[in-house]
Amino acid sequence: MGETDRLLVAYDELQELGLKSLEHVEVPPDHALITTQVLLWADLRGFGTHGVERLLSYVPRLKKGLINPYPALRLEEKGEAIRLLHGDNGLGQVVGERGVREAISLAKKSGLGLVACRDSNHFGAVAPYVLMACQEKIIGIACTNAFATMAPTGGLDSVVGNNPLGIGVPVEGGNHFVLDMAMSVSSRGRIRSMAAKGQTIPAGWAITRQGEPTTDPQEALKGMVLPVGQHKGYGLAVAIDILCGVLTGTGFGTGVKSLFQEWNEPQHIGHLFIALDPQRFMAWDSFQARIGELYRELKSVRPIDPNAPVVVAGEMENQMEQERKAVGIPLPRATLDKLKMLAAGEYDMEISKY
Hints:
This protein is of the alpha+beta class. It is 38% helix and 18% strand.
């Protein structure tokens, strides 16, 4: 797919398409706005595979009753600064936003807040949730489990989710430190996008069902993605599954259902949010001065390529967000056409089973 197949679309236009799409499946206006804004935040920062195109999967699941459009979210107190949020099978963005907001509130009151969420759905990229904390001068940590796309190191069966972790640290001027990483070398979303463009994937990203290396994105989607750092990524993915699935009482391992392949039951996803107030440790100005000192040290390192200076996590995404707010979000023409179909109330489109 060439550049001529991509269009720059204004944020407001995409938001309106998202709101109308969700309105047709009875999602309340406030929940539709939260969902669309979280998805678009990912688009603004370059995570298009977790942006508004995810509505192409969410809306059919809502129509089939696999996502609850009006969940009765319920917080259960588990300690002074600990809450369990029952998601009632709501949209992941709705559950996630409520969870991180509660964690931030607890952190402002107690210095630390932890909210575990159960019975939720795919909530998109991790970055928007930790950025919500950064905007409140709070350090945010977020993770979620996901349906199984990886095998344990040395294994041949997908039983491990590509469970992402996000850490956000507030930095004056909006250049927040934001780490948003899944546990695979590359996400299935990116592989899916490359398959649609007829591209090959680099070696080392995935293996076939038989455990053979592949550069064919279709075979990769039928097979398994590989964990970053081999056994290290596998271990981190399992640790997140324990925190988000086992601990919360919702799905874990193969108990988490695929957004694309399984249409008989909800996803049973869990999330975990931790919020920490840095001002419990030192004055805000002192904290920012120390962060600034660290940044200067990192960026003073001589680059291998003079044209590619050292950057800090979140720096390029922060810049991209500002640029895309001004000029628009690049979107494949075919995706925009499908979003317009959803906004018109048309749902009968083929959903990829991978």
